Fold this sequence. Notes:
The complex is a heterotetramer.
Chain B: H1 4-24, H2 28-53, H3 57-87
Chain C: H1 3-24, H2 28-48, H3 52-77, H4 92-112, H5 127-135, H6 139-160
Helix pairs in contact in C: 1-2, 2-3
Chain D: H1 2-33, H2 50-60, H3 71-87, H4 106-127, H5 131-162, H6 167-173, H7 185-200, H8 212-215, H9 225-250, H10 263-284, H11 290-319
Helix pairs in contact in D: 1-2, 1-9, 1-10, 2-9, 3-4, 3-9, 4-5, 5-6, 5-7, 5-11, 7-9, 7-11, 9-10
Amino acid sequence: MTPDVALPLLVLALPFAAFLLLAVVGPLRRTGRPAGLVSIAAIAISFAAALTVWARELVAERTWGWIPADGGPIATVGVLVDPLANAMLVLVTLVALLVQVYSLAYLGDERPGALGRYYTYQSLFVFSMLGLVLAPGFVQMFVFWELVGLCSYLLIGFWYERPAAARAAVKAFWITKLGDVGFIVGIVLLWSATGTFEFTDLFEKAQANALAVPGLATIMFLIYLGAVGKSAQFPLHVWLPDAMEGPTPVSALIHAATMVTAGVYMVTRTEPLFALVPEVLTLIAWVGAFTALLAATMACVEGDIKRVLAYSTVSQLGYMMAAAGAGASPAGFLHLLTHGLFKALLFLAAGAVIHAVGTNDIFRMGGLFRAMPQTAVVFVVGTLALAGVPPLAGFFSKEAVLGGVWEAHLTGPFLMLALTALLTAFYMFRVVFVAFFGRAHAGGHPHEAPWLMRGPLWLLAILTLAVGIRLALGGGEAHEEAPGWLPPLSVGLATVGFVLAWAMYQRGAVDPARVAAVLRPLDYLARRRYGLDGLYAGVYRGIILGLSRLIGWIDRYLVDGILNALTALTLRAGDALRYIQSGRAQDYVYGVAFGVLLLFVWAQLWRR
Amino acid sequence: MIGLSSYLVLAALMFSIGLFGVLTRRNAVGILLGIELMLNAVNINLVAFARFHGDLLGLVFTLFTLSITVAEVAVGLAIVIVIFRVRRTVEADRLDLLRW
Amino acid sequence: MTLEAVGFWVVAVVLLASSLAVVLTPNLFHAVLYLAAALVATGAIFLLLEQPFLFAVQLLLYAGGVVTIVVFAIMLTERLIGERVRQTSRHLVNGAIVAAAVFAGIAGFLLRSPLATPRPGPVDDATVAIGRALVGPFAVTLELLGVLLVTALLGALYFARSDE
Amino acid sequence: MAWHAIEAFIVLNVLLGLVAYVTLLERKFAARMQSRIGPYYVGRPHGWLQPIADALKLMMKEDIVPATSDRAVYNLAPIVFLVPCLLIFATLPFAPTLGVADLNIGVLFFLAVSSLEIVGLFMGGWGSNNKYALLSAMRAVNQIISYDLPFIFAALVPVVLAGSMQMSSIVAAQQGLWFVAYPLIGQLAFLAFVVATLAAENRVPFDILEAESELVAGFRVEYSGMKFALIQLGEYAHMLGTSFLGALLFLGGWLGPGPAALGPLWLLLKAMVIFLLVTWVRWSFVRIRVDHILAISWKLLMPATLVLLLAAGFVVATRGAGGG
């Protein structure tokens, strides 16, 4: 094995080893905290390895045959290491490490067995995500894609005793599966058109213009559907807010930094392919922008702090997709990285708040700045970053995205994204003002989180800041073509959002209710999530219930009917025929004689 | 000249007569007598074939049939006697305990 | 009309007549006696077919064995009273039709089948050959027959023993 | 063919005469055993004409048919009884070439035909519609079923030893050693044969079927006159035939000192020896109870004769057939 891929393989192997250890060795798993420590140790080493890989800027590919066939294997497994994957590796392992450390405190009250189970899932999830990141071809990617989906299901449903959690897990699983159907069909179609699953081969062909297969647009659209499901794009975004039923660290890990970005990562990874089909790209951009706006409006009326963050995530994912659709996938990827950091920060901070207050409802918080100043500070840092205030990380990446979209001459999406930027600042500061600076509510004595939780928070906050400063100093290569008016516009939008939030929720200058009354239809729609959930539920119920009724009718009247008819016939026949059994031996002899006669007749008439 | 078919027809007649007896007799012993006739008809067939085909097999099988018939009669009559003891009758059509 | 033919016809008439009597006579005891006659006539048929050994066995087993047992059974079941010996028949017409149909079926076969009519020349005594066959190729069958007979004997004993 | 018929006719008549005088022999013998004189007056001084007188008397007596009898059966019974008893002589040779038919299945034929006798017997018992007759017939059936097998087995021992069922061959096989003198097997088989003969002929001590004291005269209680004569004839013919069979099977048949022409005389002499042996037993023993009779057959004679048969087979297998 070349040393090139040894380190990435180590990154991949360690979480899997931890998972195997925890899954197989039941006693260890049931100890709870030690199990967590095992997992954390594995991910820590893994993180160190990933950091080394990243620092060395390793580029390597190594594959092993998997499904053998004549003339080389059909599918391979292996690792593909390039800057894209390196960055992803670092992000995933970093966030996972911090989340796992954080969880040790956050889930400290869980039973040891449940905690062990949690870390088992966590390890498996990290392994799956890393496998997805390192995938050198579509098949491996799909396998890990599904594994990620499975882990997401397991983690969302971690508190499976709660019906809401169980429902949310199933919902997340099924809705992402809708997209996955398109994904796998697309993969197979692509394979039948080109004969390979390997990214490298595909990119070479794309570069050599050897990919002019008919229906490529359809194929890429189908593949994009997978990203739609995974990255919670409209209209399959409905699972993500519900997924907040899982533990908050889980949300931080998989619904902010890792799993939901898999779609974006996939699109970015296969960008050379998507580049061949501009119409799909345009669609991606429009859908992304629309998703961003839609989610932002819903976030504005949401009272649950985690759901606000969830909508925000959807919204930011829309940003990334829009960037990818606009051909500015580096910008989108940059936003992915920075967003991964500060959204994890926000989630974890929100988790600390929830941990302290015992509720998700921001209107039952308030005045928390005094109770837990450190948490408030890092939350504000995250908010600023998300709102796009320089010199924090979010500013640069968001600006890059906007610039990319503008460059692509996608005016509609650009406008929507700009509006989204405003709304983002608004709803984030709304949370900040209501939860941290508003009048304190009685009930409980909120206190600062333990250092196990605070440590990751500070680390993330510092990283957010550091990355921002690094981007400011180094000058992101993404925004070199951006027009000069873009930074001021961006900052201006953020400021407007901030001022609106301040005016409405801090100063009380504008009554939120009156605003809601003015924007009544919009408010009404946003509060009801634009009826999408209802629509899905309706369609689902309609189809399922209709089908059930149909099947029920068939079962009751057709299947049962036939059976009933048969049984009735059998009974009647038995009633009628039992008189044959007279119990008298001689009557049976008659039967034998008739049988013999029949044989005679048969033999004499037909046999000749 | 008496050919094979003469013997066979004779046997067939005897067989049919035996069948008639089996079908019509009320007394279990009478039924057994009919069965004896039928078995003997079969024996005639076997011996006739053996004779006309110059084959030993028919003779051997006739012996077997004879022996088995004796066993059958012994067991059959034992059953008849038991039935008589229990039911005080050997009328076959009154022995319909196994009817529906 | 050779002597054999005369013998055949005489025996055939006796055989059929006694057979008919077996199934028709109302007196069960007479039926058994007619059966004895029919069995002896069957033996005579064997003699006509030049199988004296089988004739002897037939007499020994049937006339001496079967008929005796049947008489014994009649005496036991009819409780030594002559009245019950009168037996009736049922469905005479049906039985006759079915029996006639079966006969017609067999006869149909006989008429259509090509039969080896020429009778081979006189044969030697088959007794030795039968004996060799019984302990040769049919040894297993013979043993099985022995098992059957023992089983039948035990079964008959079991059935007929009185409950003490 | 014609010669056969004539021969058969001669044999039959000689036999009938013989049978008639056998009765006289028995009566005389019995009388001697009981220190009497026996028949004396008819054909005096030794009653030589007594059998003829008996026959004439019976023929002239009134033939009584019971009113409630099963007439056809009743009338046919003596004939059915007599015919097999006479038929058995068909296979008995009196000299190497003197006999009706020296069948190669002679012994078997004898056994088969003699087993038919029972039919006549129970016909008579049934047909008489007499309680005693019927009981007698039932006993007869019982006993004959029981003793048929030992009788057959005992008779088969010489057959096995000689390796043939033909009477003349069996006699020829005794050229060197009569089978009765055959070590152990011969004596035992002969003993069994005599006992079974006693039973098969319903003689004392196995005469429960006529047991005068209980059943009057057994199955023939209702018979009189000519029919009674026929039955008696049949019985004595059967006895005589069995004696001949015994002589042929065990006592070397016509073998004896002197010229071959003396053969029939030797045979007759030997048969008479057996006959007198039976008679001797008859006048010496008491009647045995019915269950004892059956027990003797099933529990003693049957296994014993089977073992004898097996032993004979074993001897033949090791030393070869043909006696001595």
